[in-house]
Amino acid sequence: MTALDGLSLAVNRGEFVALLGPSGCGKTSLLRAVAGFVPTRAGRIRLGGQDIAGVAPRLRNIGIVFQSYALFPHMTALGNVRFGLECRGVARGEAVRRARAALALVGLEALGERRPGQLSGGQQQRVALARALVIAPDLLLLDEPLAALDKQLRVQMQTELRALQRRLGVTALFVTHDREEALSMADRVAVLRDGRIRQVDAPERLFAAPADAWVAEFIGAGNLLREAPEAGIEIGRPGGAGVLFFPFDRVRVAAAAEGPRIAATRFLGLTTELHVPTRGGTIRAVLPAAEAARFSVGSAVSLRVDAAHTFLLPEG
Questions:
Q1: Are 30 and 77 found together in one domain?
Q2: What CA–CA distance (Å, rounded) separates 288 from 190?
Q3: pLDDT confidence of residue 2
Q4: Helix 151-168 crosses helix 121-133 at what angle (to 10 degrees)?
Q5: What is the pLDDT of residue 204?
Q6: Contacts of 188 (CB under 8 A, 6+ apart)
Q7: Which of 173, 171, 139 is nearest to 60 (CA)?
Q8: What is the mean pLDDT of the chain?
Q9: Tens of pLDDT along 228-244?
Q10: Do 235 and 207 fall within a single domain?
Q11: What is the pLDDT of residue 234?
């Protein structure tokens, strides 16, 4: 079975790139290949211009943070961070100094003598990050490091991790299946499917110009219609073949005596999402919450999308 096929990705120095895709698409396989944990049958892996495909993992100067953190339970936080340095032959005194500095970097300088079992999930994640950073890596690999955290802590750690990466200028490759996480953190997002990269772009570009209908649907960029809409919907359609795509927030909604009816609403705080079934599929319209309050489930509406905001995408 081929996990990665014809894949090409260049990450610039100091860049934060997220690998996004469904389970089994090859994200972690790519990360493990870069780390040297799995062999590749063909192709090259270059770091700083050097081909490292045949270099042992411990000699690649790559820092790794795993989803499970992989901390040694019998060691203190300081010991866990120091371990990688001592394995590289750094003298104990210097290793301790650098390990303390790394813990201070992630805000845990006061908890260095605690063992992992005495730390919260967020604190363990910080220790794992300090351990990866203490070696001054040429590349930082992050394999869904926030997946085990609760929602509130996860959002907090997303902000802290991104700020720290920017401050240090370390190059980072981040694996996630969480669309919001990838789009909110990364300079660029590589969307994978079946071992191939379907699109690599800045988050804003992914939303504005998805490469195909599959990418648009996976990242939730907008509406997709594969059939002509029914009466009560006015959509400026460009000429040609393909799946019709238009953003959720470009749908204009008005009350109507007849027409498609609102099947569901989702209050999202500042905005509300309306779901309107049509023959071509359910159209989602995102409106300011105050404007959406004029509509309720069961209301008949007319929908309009200007031609300037519609695009034809290949199926993908």
A1: yes
A2: 31
A3: 67
A4: 20
A5: 95
A6: 15, 17, 18, 200, 201, 202, 203
A7: 139
A8: 92
A9: 777 678 888 787 788 99
A10: no
A11: 87
The answer to whether residues 145 and 66 touch, using CB atoms and an 8 Å cutoff, is: yes
d(CA 191, CA 199): 5
Are 130 and 29 in the same domain?
Answer: yes
Strand 188-193, strand 16-20: pairing: parallel
**What's the alpha-carbon Rg for the chain, to the nearest Å?**
24
Instruction: Tell me the one-letter amino acid at 81.
Output: V
* pLDDT < 70 positions in the chain: 1-2, 231
How is 204-255 classified by DSSP, letter by letter? HHHHHS-SSHHHHHHHT-SEEESS---TTEEE---SSSSEEEE-GGG-EEEE
pLDDT at position 1: 58
- My answer on whether 130 and 187 are in the same domain is yes
Rounded to 5 degrees, what angle do the CA atoms 293, 297, 299 make?
Answer: 85
